[in-house]
Amino acid sequence: MPYIRVRGVDHYYEWVKSQSSSKVKPVMVFIHGWAGSARYWQSTAKALSEDFDCLLYDMRGFGRSNGKSPLLKTTEAVADSLATPEQTETIVALTYELEEYAIDLAALLDRLELKKVYLNAHSTGASVATLFLNLYPERVEKAILTCSGVFEYDEKAFAAFHKFGGYVVKFRPKWLALIPFVDRMFMARFLKRSIPKCDRKAFLDDFLMADYAAAIGTMVTAVSENAAKFMPGEFTKLNVPTLLVAGEYDQIIPPAMGRQAAALSDKVEFVLMPNTAHFPMLEDPQTYLGCVQQFLQGPNKA
Fold first, then answer.
1. CA dist 12 to 228, 277, 286, 288, Å?
2. In angstroms, what CA-CA distances link 133 with 114, 165, 238?
3. How remote is the C-alpha of 277 from its chain's centroid?
4. Residue 51 gets which letter from DSSP?
5. What sign results for the dihedral spanned by CA atoms 252, 255, 258, 260?
6. pTM for this predicted structure
7. How far apart are CA 10 and CA 1, in angstroms?
8. Full strand arrangement of the beta sheet holding 27-31
9. Residue 118 and residue 243 in contact, taking contact as beta carbons nearer than 8 Å
10. Is 67 exposed, middle or buried (0-12, 13-18, 19+ CB in 10 A)?
11. Residue 274: Cβ within 10 Å count
């Protein structure tokens, strides 16, 4: 499997390209959500590959990039482990703040020598993409944020969420995947419509293999008082043409949160996809692709 070292951590990545065309195409980078991987973006990337060379990668600590971060490594120790001198990087103590994941993406693009791309990001990955858009606006042509939004801080609700989430992340026996129909039960809260069994199974497998520290760390930073305070400002600052797609029945990030986020910037176009929930690109791929392609083909917002 292809891996590339980014900020001291080996990241899994892959290209999805059309074999029927030899023309030079722009690059679209896909970013997955919490405890997932690039695997659930495969079908969307394949559908868009006639017009884009699609780059999929697993974020640090998730999917096939689930190695430990170099929190306790010195720069010298990491440098010694690199294959060649030109690969030596300046390593900082990596954390699970969403901004760090945006910096990871910038470093990945640098390693692959990609100057400007399109972004297609989902859920927590969409929050990472929003931060990336403001940190590196010159590197993005257009962006699609799927199931993203802003929320208000509720101390009791957040504390309960973190406590319950901590139990869920801690109790992840591998044998869970062997229980009949467990993939369907696991995904029930995320879906309005059924999705292929292979996608349900992949998401369960990714959840079970996610690094514990990364899963807990990103959960706490993405759903926190700090995030509730700074994310509205990040949407307000957006200066890159952006499409925000919400699922009508999304229980994880209700569409009202997405509509509220989109209203903060005239660069953001909001689309509500009916009869879908947290994975509209899998639940109704035809409608999703239609919305995305219309946005991509349209003029940039002035």
1. 30, 28, 28, 26
2. 15, 29, 7
3. 16
4. T
5. negative
6. 0.90
7. 11
8. 3-6, 9-16, 53-57, 27-31, 117-122, 140-146, 242-247, 268-273
9. no
10. middle
11. 11
Q: In the block, which residue shows the tokens 């590339």?
A: 4
Which amino acid type is present at position 180? P
As given in the structure block, the two tokens for residue 238 are 């957006």
What distance in Å separates the CA atoms of residue 31 and residue 48, rounded to the nearest whole number? 15
Q: What residues in the chain have per-residue pLDDT under 50? A: 69-91
Structure confidence by residue, pLDDT tens digits, 195-216: 999 999 999 999 999 999 999 9
Residue 38 forms beta bridges with which residues?
A: none
Residue with tokens 């569409």: 255
Q: How far apart are CA 218 and CA 172, in angstroms?
A: 17
Alpha helices in 136-188 (DSSP H): 155-170, 182-187
Q: Does residue 103 come out as left (phi exceeding 0), alpha (psi in the -120 to 50 range) or beta?
A: alpha
Contact 227, 221 (CB under 8 A): yes
Contact call for residues 151 and 260 (beta carbons, < 8 A): no
The conformation of residue 81, written as its DSSP 8-state character, comes to H
What is the pLDDT, as a whole number, of residue 265?
Answer: 98
CA 244 centroid distance within chain: 14
Distance CA(240)–CA(266), nearest Å, equals 10
Q: Residue 68 contacts by C-beta under 8 Å, 6 or more apart in sequence?
A: 211, 213
- How many CB atoms sit inside 10 A of residue 256's CB? 13
Which residue, chain included where needed, has tokens 């892959």? Answer: 14
